[in-house]
Amino acid sequence: MIGFIQSVLNILLLPGLAFTLIASILLAGIDRVLVARMQRRVGPPVLQPLYDVLKCLGKETIVPRKANEKVFLLAPAVGLISVLVTAMFLPIGNVSAIRTNADMIVILYLLTLASVTLIVGSAASGSPFAGVGLSREMVAMISYELPLVMVMLTVGFVCGNGLATFSLAKIGAYQAANGPLLLNPVLWPAAIALLFVIPCEVGQQPFDIDEAETEICEGVLAEYSGKPLAQFKMMHNVKMYVMSGLFCALFLNIQTGFFLADILIYCVSCVLVTFVSMSVPHAVTARFRVEQVFKFYWTVVTGCAALSLILVWIGL
Question: Are 90 and 246 in contact (CB under 8 A)?
Fold first, then answer.
């Protein structure tokens, strides 16, 4: 009975739903503040992402005349739920809300589902701007999925002692015994590859080709307003946290034996990953073109992931 209550608390509170929502809002807000400071702007308050979501919740939901209403309204809800469930698999220290023997496979499918809901929802809107955006989102998915899978395989082979493991708990136990995988030079190319995958998976500038406000009027979100838009905005915030947390789980799982200390280290690590992988590129780089994104990920990023995978495969 005690174990069941503990599991419910882990899912609802820490490191589950409540922690995920709070961390997502704060992480997105910190990212915006950091970008503003690097660009010598005052910038918004840290809680601005929360204000944006609340404002959207108070607005009228307008469904385009030519839209498939049910799909148009259901897609954002499914996308938000998928990323929230993804966050349940992320461990803080050695504690996670949900554990399986195939955590990384489930995470990969759920992240893909979130992107698919964006595509399906924009397709259901009937907007030509959304049509361009969804085609760009599909290109982005094709670009980053391969290196992401290769990074997961690389980490799985290292922590599985020759047999790939897809359990984040086992990966965490390996790092607790041998130190963070980021200290292993063989895995540095894979870590770099994942840092590049993060902003494209999240849809953060300079890889926000599916929205591109100045080109296609928000693209995939062109026709969304009110509660559905709030759900997509919240999905974006949670995705930022999920991808930063995934990097920490794979390469920076530091366990002290004290849960409060593990939480502090985890939060600081997520902020550092967000700063390096999203804030800095956003502040210093203009938006990539579609063909540039595809070429960059299938050459540089995939090459880095493949290098670590080969080195691990041959036993280095």
Answer: yes
Given this model, what pLDDT does residue 211 score? 73
Distance CA 250, CA 53 (A): 30
For 140, the token pair is: 């982005």
Which two three-digit tokens encode residue 136? 């760009």
User: What pTM does this model have?
Assistant: 0.92
Quick one: pLDDT at residue 108?
A: 92
The answer to whether residues 165 and 159 touch, using CB atoms and an 8 Å cutoff, is: yes
Q: What is the DSSP string of 24-36?
A: HHHHHHHHHHHHH
Q: Which two tokens stand for residue 271?
A: 């902020």
Q: What angle do CA 256, 259, 262 make, to 5 degrees?
A: 55
Q: What is the pLDDT of residues 281-305, one digit of tens each?
A: 988 888 888 888 889 999 999 999 9
Residue 289, domain extent: 2-313
Q: Is the pLDDT of residue 19 over 80?
A: yes
Specify the number of domains making up the chain. Answer: 1
For Cα atoms 160, 161, 166, give the angle at the middle one, nearest 5 degrees: 10
Give the rounded percent of residues in the chain with a pLDDT score beyond 70: 96
d(CA 86, CA 315): 31
Q: How many CB atoms lie within 10 A of CB 78?
A: 17
